[in-house]
TrEMBL record:
Organism (species): Uliginosibacterium sediminicola
Identification of the protein by name: PhoH family protein
Pfam entry (one): PIN_4
InterPro entries: P-loop_NTPase, PhoH, PhoH2-like, PIN-like_dom_sf, PIN_dom
UniProt similarity note: Belongs to the PhoH family. In the N-terminal section; belongs to the PINc/VapC protein family.
Length: 485
């Protein structure tokens, strides 16, 4: 499994021919790499990097504005200014990066200091910025014939054009948490049939606060993570969560069965194993950070809102629910939206309204709030406790004692995800919902999404939990469509 410990100097060149220690590679950076990750200047270890003049021009063209891309363009320019200012006379020979990067990189930074005549094949327009960068790569490949010159770009078409011209090109891999999202932590594991025979010889069992605990020892326990959910089907089914793990020893705690009507959460009961696991995490006050992954219709938003309303209005554990999401349209943007922040966010919050209709109906059936008047009063009460916020105004805020829901979190970059999660003050619970198969943000992939990033980084922390919901519960039509389309 690929982890962030694998640096990009290894990952950007996996499969390339091994060079001798003295013959390092020369990486030519496309603009989108710097706008995606300004720290990419320090991510190539002992290898050298080359920044064409056209890359600097494009950074300059994109520096204005308040978007994430503009901020990254400004950050990349500032970092290069600091590097060049430290060695003003060393641009021609290459500026060593070991000092500015604090030993993260030991290669050199080269800036284009000479006019390069674009010698591209006839028919390739030389006025286009991408093609001028390709001309630089071609020139460098001819000048350093004994050295590996590689273009690094997030632009697929740019990489295809480079390969068509006989140049080596690669994606920027450093920010990818996983090469294969099938390896992403699911948050649960099935115990083998012989688990108790192999792990139960020195088992201890006790009861505490209505829960049963098992202390088991064996080889499988070493691979388990704290707050991972384990299950075993059969005559005596077991659904439990790992509370502690130390070497080959683990402590299991049995779960509350939210599939039973007596344990319903705001009128909602779990319809499958994963939903039961999710509700156990959502209702657990010890778990501060939860990620729920799953395709459309698996119940992510419904379960989260039900748990939030119960803990805000009934148990009073949190003061209110705050819901936010990335405003990336699926199709063409509909343009300017009038009104306040909450009114502008309303079109993006159709999922919230749909789920509130279900929950309001469920509350009426479960608690009997007195017909249409009671239902209207309940709806008004619920709406006063749910605030809809835009991501654009999150920087600098602190949420105290709130139930914070981040919807469509797969469209966030790791940096945006960090900005949001660090808003949490004392007593706040953060829930990230998303489907990594539905990413609408340019340059983000399943492997580099902020949602994938936090699932991998928070794994094993005692106050976080993760579940991948498998089965759709929306309707037979929706399930069949998700399967065949």
């Amino acid at each position: 499994m690929a982890t962030n410990k694998r640096n990009s100097a290894e990952r950007n060149h996996a499969g390339a021919k091994a060079d001798s220690a003295s013959n390092t590679k020369l990486f030519v950076l496309d603009t989108n790499v710097l706008m995606h990750d300004p720290t990419s200047l320090y991510r190539f270890e002992e290898h050298d990097i080359y920044v064409p003049i056209m890359t600097l021009e494009e950074l300059d063209n994109n520096k204005k504005g308040m978007s994430e891309v503009s901020r990254n363009a400004r950050q990349a320019s500032r970092m290069m200014d600091e590097i060049v200012s430290a060695f003003p006379n060393g641009i021609d020979e290459g500026i060593p990066l070991s000092g500015p990067s604090k030993e993260l990189a030991s290669g050199k930074l080269f800036l284009q200091t000479e006019a390069i005549d674009p010698t591209l094949p006839a028919g390739v327009p030389t006025a286009k910025a991408d093609n001028q960068i390709l001309a630089v790569v071609m020139f460098l490949s001819q000048r350093f014939a004994d050295r590996s010159v590689i273009l690094v770009s997030k632009d697929i078409n740019m990489r295809i054009k480079a390969r068509a011209l006989g140049l080596e090109a690669q994606d920027y891999f450093n920010d990818k948490v996983l090469e294969d999202t099938d390896l992403l932590y699911t948050g649960m594991r099935e115990l083998p049939d012989d688990f108790w025979e192999t792990h139960g010889k020195e088992m201890e069992s006790w009861k505490e606060n209505g829960r049963t605990y098992f202390k088991v020892k064996g080889p499988l326990c070493a691979d388990m993570s704290v707050n991972e959910l384990v299950f075993q089907d059969g005559d005596k089914p077991l659904h439990a969560i790992i509370k502690q793990r130390s070497g080959p020893t683990a402590v299991f705690e049995t779960l509350i069965d939210y599939g039973h009507q007596k344990n319903n959460v705001w009128g909602i009961v779990a319809r499958n194993r994963e939903q039961n696991f999710a509700l156990n995490l959502l209702m657990n006050p010890e778990v501060d950070f939860i990620t729920l992954l799953g395709q459309a219709g698996t119940g992510k938003t419904l379960l989260t809102l039900a748990a939030g309303l119960t803990q805000v209005l009934e148990t009073k554990r949190y003061s209110e629910i705050i819901m936010t999401r990335v405003t990336v349209p699926v199709g063409e943007d509909i343009g300017f939206l009038p009104g306040t922040e909450e009114e502008k966010m309303a079109p993006w919050m159709g999922a919230l309204e749909d789920n509130l209709d279900v929950l309001n109906g469920g509350a009426e059936e479960g608690g009997g709030y007195g017909g249409e008047w009671g239902r209207a009063a309940t709806r008004d009460l619920i709406r006063t406790r749910i605030k809809v916020k835009s991501l654009n105004f999150m920087r600098g805020r602190t949420f105290i004692n709130k139930f914070l829901i981040i919807d469509e979190a797969q469209n966030l970059t790791p940096k945006q995800m960090k900005t949001l999660i660090t808003r949490a003050g004392p007593g706040t619970k953060v829930i990230c919902l998303g489907n990594i198969a539905q990413i609408d943000t340019p340059y983000l992939t399943e492997g580099s999404s902020g949602l994938t990033y936090v699932v991998d980084r928070f794994k094993g922390w005692p106050h976080s939990g993760h579940i991948t919901l498998q089965r759709g519960e929306r309707s037979r039509l929706a399930d069949h469509a998700a399967e065949i389309l």
